Amino acid sequence: MKLKQFAIVLLTAGSLSTACTKVLDVAPQQSIDALTAIQTADDVNQLVIGSYSLMGTGQLYGTNLFLLPDLLGSDFNAGAAAAARYATWVGTFQGQRQAFRKQMTRDNSEASRTWIAAYRTINNANLVLQNLDKVTDVAERNRLEGEALLIRGVMHFELVRLFALPWGATPNNSQAGVVIQTTASNNKDEAAAAAKPRATVAAVYAAVLADMTAAVGKLPASNGTRFNASTAQAYLSRVYLQQGNFAAARDAANAVIASGKYSLNASVAAVFSNRNTAESIFEIQQNDQNNAGQSNDGMATFYASLPGIGRADVRISNGFYNLYNDNDLRKREWYYLGTGARPADPANGVLNRYSGKWKSFSQNLPVIRLAEMYLNRAECNLRLGTAVGATPEQDLAQVRNPIRTNLPSIVNPTLADVLNERQLELAFEGHRIHDIRRLGGSVGTYAWNADILVMPIPAREVDATSGVITQNPGY
């Protein structure tokens, strides 16, 4: 059975709905038509498991959905303001270097890998939804449907945030978004015939919200390490916040907090050094044998600089590091001077300093933490002049307090206080460019809505569809 399910994942990985060209060279016995391969409820469940596995690859949450937003949101210019510099890419891989230096080309390797893997995952989710009739148990069917809907919604959301001008770039968000795929390709012939144009950003967000909202009603309150109803609410809070829908973002975050399922750890390091702690709403499961990579992919691969661990490719700006109060435990626990051989550049605020969040190849990767929900609710309540669930002062005190951070709680916090704590708390977890965009900021001289900050649509997708899928401006 395990071999059969592996074959299904390979098939759906090769059946990209937006390309006619061959993606995988697989042996004939692996090219199983999904209509033949998916026959039982266990087959459908294994396909969902395969979708989680795809999300954990280096192309997605295993690396790129964390790394690329941080590289895009870092100012690469020498002499840049200390905080704006954020991080520096000193590695040799050109795909990441192009993203950091804002010199991406239409054949950027990381853009292509991320696009392909996300649509593979979407196709897996669509195959699950297409085969729900194989699942006779009602509770199991609802659970699998909810997981597939949320997986599909999450992947469309991550794609539209990276490959399209951001929400708000046009008055009605009519700018080109990404291709919305809600039907499965069972084989390569169907994939070749399924080329569709990019939907507008408004339409993509509507599809994302529809999937995530439906998932809330289908998912159970508890589901092991897989998506549950609170995961869907947490993602909804992210989506609504990206749109500037503060009431909805607040209420979704409040639902997660009010569920009582999660609590912040006393130690800021615990969520990154332990697995599935009380503050983790969803994380990618990894171990020594199964992880995103130890040489060409993986968070520790690029962010760590320890004996035998890491390439030391992402160095933390000294200026950003010094935004933390010297007494802040996060400054001590989350940053360190590593063993990287590349020379430091003190004149430009660059030392051999690295993120302590990503130190092990086998560690789990927290994607959404409870701290984000407290920060979302605090920000939205402040903006709206409300106190749903708690006051902004109470929420901010959950994140910053004498026990957790060794800092006093902030009395009567301002919006600037909340946003500052957000960047300190969620640093190097893939939020950087997305927060710059929604807050109308800039990356050096590039405004939040600059074309150059948008990833290119892979050239193979544009070429294979004879322009049905259009390219982004500047590429």
Description of the molecule:
The strands form four sheets. A two-stranded antiparallel sheet has the order 1-3. The protein has a two-stranded antiparallel sheet with strand order 2-6. α1 (2-14) packs across α3, α7 runs antiparallel to α8 (138-163) and α8 (138-163) runs antiparallel to α10. It has a single domain, classed as Alpha Horseshoe (Serine Threonine Protein Phosphatase 5, Tetratricopeptide repeat), CATH 1.25.40.390. 46% of the residues lie in helices and 5% in strands. The longest helix is centred in the N-terminal third of the chain and has 26 residues, at 138-163. With 475 residues, the chain is mainly alpha-helical. It has 21 helices and eight strands. The radius of gyration is 22 Å and the shape is globular. A hairpin with a 2-residue loop joins β7 (442-443) and β8 (446-447).
Features:
single chain, 475 residues, mainly alpha, Serine Threonine Protein Phosphatase 5, Tetratricopeptide repeat, two-stranded antiparallel ribbon, two-stranded antiparallel sheet, 21 helices, 46% helix, 5% strand
Cα distance spanning the termini: 45 Å
* Range of helix content: 40-55%
The secondary-structure class comes to mainly alpha
Strand order of the largest sheet: 1-3
Subcellular location: Cell outer membrane
Main location: membrane
Pfam family, one: SusD_RagB
Protein name: SusD family protein
